[in-house]
Amino acid sequence: MTAIEARGLRKTFGSTIALDSIDLRVEEGRILGIIGPNGAGKTTALNAILGLTSYEGELTVLGRNPWTERDLLMRDVSFIADVAVLPRWMRVSQILDYVSGVHPRFRRAKAEAFLTKTTIKRSSKIRELSKGMVTQLHLALVMAIDAKLLVLDEPTLGLDLLYRKQFYDSLLNDYFDRTRTIVVTTHQVEEIQDVLTDLMFIDRGRIALTCSMEEFESRYLEVMVLPEHVAAARALGPLHERQVLGRSILLFDHADRQQLAALGDVRTPGIADLFVAVMGNQPGEIR
Amino acid sequence: MSEQSSAVPEFAAASPVVVQAPRPMYWSVRRELWENRSIYVAPLLVAAVVMFGFVLSTIGMPHRRRATLLLAPAQQHTTIAMPFDIAAAMLVVTAFVIGIFYCLDALQGERRDRSILFWKSLPVSDRTTVLAKTSIPLLALPAFTFVIIVLTQWFMLLWSTAVLLPSGLAGSTWMHFHWFTQSLLVFYCLIVLVLWHAPIYALLLLISSWARRGSYLWAVLPPLAIAAVEKIVFNTAYFGSFLKYRLIGGIGEAFVFKAPHGTDSLSRLTPLNFLSTPGLWLGLILAAIFITAAVRLRRDREPV
């Protein structure tokens, strides 16, 4: 089943084009990472999927029109926006009461169990919690919702390293069950490389690259070239070249692994390196 | 037998939670009451001040009551019932002021602190949210105000009875202040005011959902500007009298004051006249339009 399907998805703010006719298809059970520079249109795309903004073109999320059926859609979708949005005046116990009261798929016991592992007190107001605790609380709420689609917009922004690692661990171990679909955007690309099943680069409202992680691993290779082979490697037409500690690292698309192995150490590139390579090759781009 | 008993806990484990049907409207209203504690704190404070003032005013009351009872019956009635009317009026005005401030912030505050993104992540429609917020000035505040007024008046009645009991004048308060009739009167008055003021609350909710910031200014400045321009250009004050009518005109349509009846007699009520006032129905139609527009705007608007 298809979780998200968009055709010609377009959104403009005045003369600024935030989304430029995007076609998108996310199958159920995938974990899609949307990577892009600031202002690329990531949040706009997510907002359209969540029914938070109007758009042109066709968009179906779990078989529904998000703009006209947001309240029904939200029974099966949960999301964490890129900023702390939990109401600061609310008490932890109140927010648990409220979500239990309005959400048919919220399992309060699960959220309570998650909170027991933290130092968050039920009687605290949200404004009294630290930034990390607010994210933990939001995560506890979202994890306790039996949703079909989870959307995370920069979920670990402003959190320390230890907590970011825990976040993705619990996402994979406690939440993801291969029938749910997760869409995540982040700048911390290296953290989600092992988490994703699919990858999408988005830039200036357009999709710059889309592939599955299996495809990514078979398609892109990075070679740390021995100095004597640099010229030969360059002749094979690399996507991108960079220097690390005096060694040249070349990134290839659709290259022959055997051939590259003769030139130096071959490995799968990081998403961040591919991102730089793909985005740096965009025509007319100054970076 | 033993099979049956062992099957029960297994069944219980398989369906551990009996999920209650969601009640978005009920919880949305509770949410508003959690967030805006002034809805009940402010009337309670005003009631406390009123009661304190009344207690102070009863110092030397037996002496003054004797003088009052020498007046004509109508004047006796006015003098004895006045503190009760003042208490009720103060609480009614308090509720109106709270309602105004509540409406102006109701749909803007959630965009300002971006919590709207959290509310919208839950399966609660914009219509439910806006109607829940509308119900605060139209239902919750009047209902609460009614209870507070009745309790305050009862306190005043019992206190003055206690103060006047030694001098044997306690009965005079009960003779001139009929608490049941008075409660009916307050109830009627609150319903009249809520229906009459509904378009004001609805307009303020609309402004709150529309304005990016400064909903207070948007609520105050345009009417002032219209009145000023009218005065300068035409040297008239129709807009001002229109506003005045919308603020207090409902009372004039729902009560007669000049009739020579006893002042708290129910014969002063003119509900049929009130219900046949075009201004009432026009106002309610406008209120419905404003609320519908506010629902649409809540869907369209993004955090500010």
How would you sum up this structure, described in words?
The complex is a heterodimer of chains A (287) and B (304). Chain A has 287 residues and is α/β, with parallel strands linked by helices. Chain A folds into two domains: 2-210, Rossmann fold (3-Layer(aba) Sandwich), CATH 3.40.50; 216-279. Chain A has eleven helices and 13 strands. Chain A has helices spanning 42-49, 70-73, 92-102, 108-116, 131-143, 161-175, 189-192, 213-219, 230-235, 257-261, 271-280, and strands spanning 2-13, 16-27, 31-35, 56-61, 77-80, 149-153, 181-185, 198-203, 206-212, 220-225, 240-244, 247-253, 264-267. In chain A, the strands form three sheets. In chain A, strands 5-6-7-3-8-9 form a six-stranded mixed sheet, sandwiched between helices. In chain A, helix 4 packs antiparallel against helix 5 (131-143) and helix 5 (131-143) runs parallel beside helix 6. In chain A, 42% of the residues are buried. The mean pLDDT of chain A is 86. Chain B is mainly α and 304 residues long. At the A-B interface, helix 2, strand 5 and helix 3 of A face helix 2 and helix 7 of B.
Q: How would you summarize this macromolecular structure in one to three sentences?
A:
The complex is a heterodimer of chains A (287) and B (304). Chain A is an alpha/beta fold and 287 residues long.
Q: How are the elements arranged and paired?
A:
The complex is a heterodimer of chains A (287) and B (304).
Chain A: E1 2-13, E2 16-27, E3 31-35, H1 42-49, E4 56-61, H2 70-73, E5 77-80, H3 92-102, H4 108-116, H5 131-143, E6 149-153, H6 161-175, E7 181-185, H7 189-192, E8 198-203, E9 206-212, H8 213-219, E10 220-225, H9 230-235, E11 240-244, E12 247-253, H10 257-261, E13 264-267, H11 271-280
Parallel strand pairs in A: 3-7, 3-8, 5-6, 6-7
Antiparallel strand pairs in A: 1-2, 1-4, 8-9, 10-12, 10-13, 11-12
Chain B: H1 2-14, H2 24-35, H3 38-57, H4 61-68, H5 73-106, H6 109-112, H7 116-119, H8 126-164, H9 170-176, H10 179-210, H11 215-234, H12 238-254, H13 271-275, H14 278-300
Helix pairs in contact in B: 2-8, 3-5, 3-8, 5-8, 5-10, 8-9, 8-10, 8-14, 10-12, 10-14
